[in-house]
Records
---
Amino acid sequence: MTSKQCVKVLITFDFDAESLWMSLGMTTPMPLSRGTYGAQVGVPRILSLLEKKGVKATFFVPGETARRHPETVKSIHVQGHELAHHGDIHESPIGLSREEERAALVRGIDTLAEITGKSPRGYRSPSWDFSDNTVELLEELGFVWDSSLMADDFNCYAISHQERKTSITEIPVSYELDDAPYFLFCFKPYLTGMANPDQVLSIWKKEFDGALLHSGVFNLTLHPQLIGRWHRLAILEELIDYIKSHPGAEFLSCSEAIERTK
Ligand SMILES: [Zn+2]
């Protein structure tokens, strides 16, 4: 590694809790309890690990999660992690009218602002997709960045909309760097999701190597109800240790990373 190589490491958590299952229309006790597990077991374990490693992260929190688990969300904020917008009830913007989408964004903003005292600067669409109105609404409501789209891997970029470069900077996500495709098991809609964590760790380490080689951004998406399982949390710890063994790596919140790229 040359001394010039560096990488912005963004460990992000989509703290969906019950709202993930509600948004899929699965409101019986079993699926909801999987979300509750994320709040009651996953997040405390994650916070403990992040504190032990001295790592700052970003948590994307739907309004529904913050209203249902206010003390847990407060504990994330108190520990110094960034809270960002992830819908109000984890609704996809697709199919909403402009007014409906705006109202959901405002409810989510207000709910997070009650905890942090300020509006969130960043957004991640619950469906990792935009309606025709999303990016204009993000600009109107004062967002600075988004993390839902995939036009690059190691580089942030300005989102274009109707042949115009918008003021919203994209921190690109990918399914390869998301724990859900590997670990989210469900009978309906059927998702296999029981991957060997060691194989996933191998993929994530190699992606980090690429981000470092390109002096770019390594943006990992995790879900407390998935990565919070003990055998999976172990690979997160191993990944953090691997990243920390590279002097050019810096763990940042998403907003800190955006500030550094200006
Ligand atoms: Zn989500």
---
Amino acid sequence: MAQQNTSEAIPNNNDVLIIGGGPTGLTMSALFSRAGIRSLVVEKRKTLPADPQAHVIRRRSMEIFEQIGVADAVRAAEPDLALDYITWCSTLGGEEAGRLDLHIDENGDPLPKIWTNIPQNLLQPILFDRVQSDANCDVRLGTECVGIEDLDDGVTAKISLAGGDEHTVCARYAIVADGAGSPTRERLGIGMEGRGPGAKFYMIHFKADVTPWIKSRSGPLFWILNPAALGTFIVHDPKKSIVFMTPALADEEGEDQLRPRLMAALNIPIDPEIVSIRPWVAHGQIAERYRLGNAFLVGDAAHRFPPTGGLGLNTGIQEAHNLAWKLALVLKGRGADRLLDTYEPECKPAAQANAQDSMDNQEKLGRVFEAIGRVQDVDALDERLRSIDGAEKRALKDAIECQRSHFSQRT
Ligand SMILES: Cc1cc2nc3c(=O)[nH]c(=O)nc-3n(C[C@H](O)[C@H](O)[C@H](O)COP(=O)(O)OP(=O)(O)OC[C@H]3O[C@@H](n4cnc5c(N)ncnc54)[C@H](O)[C@@H]3O)c2cc1C
């Protein structure tokens, strides 16, 4: 697990302070370096995250990873999982409602591999190693931004160091990349627009080998329709790393409640080792503004949408790219401040469209349930799926086919 030495004094005066060392902040630091700009990244975590979260890395993000020299490492770290199908089934071991073939598009034409499938907990160490070995990138783990003030000619930020000491840091510009709950965005008084908070889910990350049960329909996602254990398996590595994302049924649920639900969704003879259980609340929100004086919001700090579409991390990477070269030009005296005002009108509409797509994708999933109709329990569901025929079978096939836009985005 990545660790780093924080004993060196934190620099007082910086061109750029990046608050948050998630995928967006780390990519931004590497992009600045490529443009010849030094940045200081403060990240409150002491170690990199162990849970997978995002896994869909789209082509445009890979082009950006190419520019910062990590694309080969990202491809090499992809787990051994064929992206053949997206499957809907009663349980992993139960009846299948249908599947989408990822090798063809909506017209039945061949579709090239459209995303790189790497879990976020494998991606982040690659980005971290990239910036840690770069003299232009100063990344401090265990270092939290606890205050920020925007001044005429820069920002000052209060930084809390691992031992508890506080330090004031000045920077010409601040990049606010501290994630969906962004405390820095709140401190700057920037509100969010849109929908949320919505439904609460639990993400159960577990270790198990499910290869025997998925090898004939290999893929990253299995939608589970069992009325007693609804949810989605996100298969990061079929041999050892899977997340079950299931709607919360009560305010506080722990392993006692969630393990039986996981077993009911699996319905196969395995004994999963639960690594972590984390709550997650759906939002479809965009920040009111992306810039306040010398501070800029990027990534989840600027928007939060459901994972249905795999767009959150990708949107942040693309914002980092849009902003880094502009700030680099301005810092070098080769661009005027008004260039920086193009960041919001260029990036916010993309985030709004991605938020809408993600929410539409989430809502459309309901059509599969409508096509199946109400069933009492998993036995009735299995019986229904075994016997469904004629027009009803075609309606179910159409309901699954209409989910295709969720997975076929090419950029
Ligand atoms: C189940 C799930 C599946 C997903 N799948 C996909 C997918 O397939 N594709 C996709 O594109 N997206 C996906 N996402 C979304 C993706 O995980 C996020 O969009 C992404 O992590 C955002 O990156 P970020 O760097 O902007 O923010 P974060 O990853 O949240 O990083 C922010 C960082 O800031 C740090 N921080 C917070 N406050 C402070 C502070 N005060 N000082 C210093 N540091 C601070 C945090 O510790 C954190 O490390 C998924 C999300 C979930 C929950």
